Amino acid sequence: MAAQTPRELVCRALRFEGPARIPRDLWTLPWAEEHFPAALAKIRKRFPPDLVTAPAVTLPSPRLRGDPYTPGLYTDEWGCTFVNIQAGAIGEVREPILADAGEWSRMKPPYEILPSDPARAREEVARFCASTGRFVIAQACPRPWERYQFLRGTLNALMDMATMDESVRGLLARIHGYYMKELEFWASTDVDALMFMDDWGSQSRLLISPHLWREVFKPLYREYAECAHSRGKFIFMHSDGNIEEIFADLAEIGIDAVNSQLFCMDLARVRSAARGKLTFWGEIDRQHVLPSRDPAEGRRAVRHVADALYDPAGGIIAQLEFGLAANPDVVAAVFEEWESVSTLRPA
Fold first, then answer.
1. Cα dihedral 145, 68, 120, 140 sign
2. Can you say how many angstroms the Cα of residue 7 is from the centroid of all Cα atoms in its chain?
3. Which of 19, 4, 3 is nearest to 310 (CA)?
4. How far, in whole angstroms, is CA 15 from its chain's centroid?
5. Is the pTM of this model over 0.85?
6. Cα–Cα dist 234/224, whole Å
7. Strand partners, 26
8. What stretches in the chain show pLDDT beneath 70?
9. Cβ atoms of 175 and 144 closer than 8 Å
């Protein structure tokens, strides 16, 4: 029997069709590239990721200024300016560009960066997908809640959620409309999956009530999932923090894989809500485990996740972020341990 390609491994994990091994995914920040180039190269050679991101085919934005990973100011394609004090990481918005949600109609999404020649852009993506045996994720990451925060500031955004008046809904609709156009383009390409994100969790719970989240944001995410599935694509989501209250909702609307901070959550509740219904796309704790001096901490962390969530049929992608303060020896130990997990039997 022919070996399964990386793309086949990921698809089998997502469909619960018994991948030959647990697929791997490694995220890196420029900090890791700068501080541990040799160790990172060794990890990539020994544990090559099975997922890859498609090439960017958007146009240059006239609003862009600076570098998001360099200390100083960076302005993105929406006109939001970030202040960065740490090389190799991303900063935060200090001065929101919308002082009042009532000004939402003057906010112009960056439609100008979408491909001016969609057919040519699709051809470029098709060539890339045909050239790799890896699972390809779109080069687009809608983030309606985070974008709202960048435009209004986090405190203002949370207050807006409490009022939820027509101005707030108008701004959200404008943000969502742009992201749907972006996803519709990528759904028309040869990529395997679309992706979106929003950091919804604090260390212990959602940033807003689950009821409000279900009323306002769940319908947006459902549209993202429907956009992907209508063209035969998978849909992936990322969220930091404790989101165990909405795992069942994410499974219900058809999210195929969720990248989340499992170590903030009660894995028994996560298991009950979503095991067998979606794929857990990482991750391993960045606060305590990955910076540890002891590689055994990484091995124990993998077993903690596997004991609760592993299913030989699929539902796991072994992912972590090699970012600030991470120990390369722990990173390697994590991937080593996931290699041995395939011997486990379902609990």
1. negative
2. 18
3. 19
4. 19
5. yes
6. 10
7. 320
8. 1, 343-347
9. yes
Q: Which amino acid is it at 198?
A: D
At residue 253, the pLDDT reads 98
pLDDT tens-digit readout, 229-288: 999 999 999 999 999 999 999 999 999 999 999 999 999 999 999 999 999 999 999 999
Long-range pairs of 217-220 with CB within 8 A, sequence gap ≥ 24: 217/144, 217/145, 218/246, 218/249, 218/253, 220/144, 220/172, 220/176
Condensed to tens digits (0 to 9), the pLDDT of residues 98-110 reads 999 999 999 999 9
Query: How many CA atoms lie within 13 Å of 94's alpha carbon, on the beta-carbon side?
Result: 9
**Residue 315 DSSP SS3:** coil
**How is residue 168 written in tokens?**
């707030």
**Phi, psi angle pair for 309, to nearest 5°:** -120, -15
Q: How far apart are CA 284 and CA 155, in angstroms?
A: 29
CA distances (Å), origin 1, targets 24, 229, 339: 22, 30, 20
Strand partners, 234: 193
Nearby residues of 66 by Cβ (< 8 Å), 6 or more positions away: 72, 73, 74, 75
Closest CA to 61 of 172, 171, 178: 178
CB atoms within 10 A of CB 92: 12
Alpha helix positions (H), the chain: 6-15, 30-35, 37-46, 118-131, 144-152, 154-163, 166-187, 210-216, 218-230, 247-252, 267-274, 295-309, 328-341
Short-list 318, 248, 256, 261, CA closest to 289: 261
Task: At 133, list the tokens.
Answer: 């045996």
CATH of 6-59+98-341, one of 3.40.50.880, 3.50.30.40, 3.20.20.210, 3.40.980.10: 3.20.20.210
